[in-house]
Major facilitator superfamily (MFS) profile domain-containing protein
Amino acid sequence: MDHNQEERAVLMIDDHDDHTSTTTTNSSSPPLITRLTVEEVIEDHVGSFGFSQLLHVFLVSLAWTFDSQNTLVTIFTDAQPTWACKGGGTWCSSGAGPTGPGSICGAKPGSWEWTGGSRGSTVAEWGLVCDRKFLAGLPACLFFIGSLLGSMVYGRVADLYLGRKKTVLISCLSASLTSFLTSLSPNIWVYSFLRFSNGFARSGIGICCLVLSTEVVGRKWRGQVGQYGFFFFTFGFLSLPLIAYPLRGNWRHIYTIISVLPLIYSILVLPFVSESPRWLAVKGRTKEAMEVLNKLARLNGKKIPSNVSISVPNSGVTKGSSSSSGGREYGSLWSASWAARRMLLMMFAGFGVGFVYYGIQLNVENLSFNLYFTVALNALMEIPAVFLGSVLLSFMNRRTLLAWSAYVAGVSCLLCGVFAGKSRSGENQLRGSWAQLSAEAVGFMAASTAFDVMYIYCVELFPTNTRNIAVSLLRQALMLGAAVAPVLVVVGRLSPSFSFLVFGCLAILSGILMYWLPETRNAPLYETLEQQEEAEKLDNSWGSDEADIELAKQ
């Protein structure tokens, strides 16, 4: 039952009405003004998903490419490089080091060299090995902590002050600047601080792009449109090996290249993107919201009737009606107990999904396969993950899809530890096998599906006036999990099976938490907490009445 359709108010306007009145110069009847929500205008007059929305989603989603590049670039820039004794052989390292016989820690100073040169990675340039090896994970940890804090700021700024489009602009420009400055880092400490700054800067891209894309389409297309952005995230991921391989002799050049792309996007593409009409309506800027909707309708070959206006969604209660919530107004997401409960469950589950999703990507170096090959394989696995997610979202419940994706990711990670075998040389390390690589690829694909669907699920769980804040809080939880993952990756250099065991357990736990949340498939997007609370109570009441009728018939 669609309560938004029932709430349409057809109002007679004359010159005695307050601030919204229209006047006539003759004795004829005033025109009928039909007040609709943005959701109703999109569904009835603009079109659920047409050419204009496709173009809008495409332009917005391009920014996901830079988000991916800035997030995952450390896979190459902070990689553990190979070394060799000068002149070849292993003559310079006859003693046993902390990681086994013949390790770099047992070599005499000056008797060995990095095979890719001293500037191939930050580890080689600043000597982040042996007793300094844990410093190699510091930049990635601080990057995700910066992302966590940035999500807090960008979410509130986008919802309360600047809107989605301006926030994306600020995030892209600051990400470009911090990436370029990172290429000039003189030492590991400045480098770590700039990675923290870059994480803070780029965190607004994913949050606002997802919300800005889904808020211009009808309910039927929200899931698929939310997935389209992740295609570009995958494209950014896949582009990294292509950028990094030719520049493998100098990690600084990689940062220089990825700093240019968001700057070009901000200047040449973003000016053609429209602000979210839902956000404009919530802020009372209904004239601007109608202009955006008229523009979308024209590109779809449609026209919105001149007597249609947008209602300002100040409350979920219509004038003169009594509210089941007692006219209660909520100041924030946390002031509504049902919303706070949902948010906490999403954040706990998000921590596990973020930990696994980013952890698997950063953990590829512990598979003992060629780094460029494994990264490219993981990036390619994101493509079927997005396709599969898009297809499954069209007919599956969000909650079920998310839970089972997490289960598959967890089981696959556990299998990675099982398939690991002892290296041929007898060192206390685990070598990768093709079975292990296959399990890792399937696990990453499932984790990618869970990661993508979780964002879409969060968008649908909360109303417009708290949606960006809710997505930013989820992002914080995902980034917190990602911040812990690099530490486990460093530990995984000594025991890969242990790291995969932790990844697997957390993924399964995240899937279990999903069953305490409501289903949102085909549910309308509400504008305020009050409106959503009343509508959901009416839905529950309607469902109870139907059940009573069926019981009486029996």
Summary: The longest strand covers residues 32-36. Strands lie at 9-12, 32-36, 83-85, 96-97, 100-101, 112-114, 308-310, 421-422, 430-431.
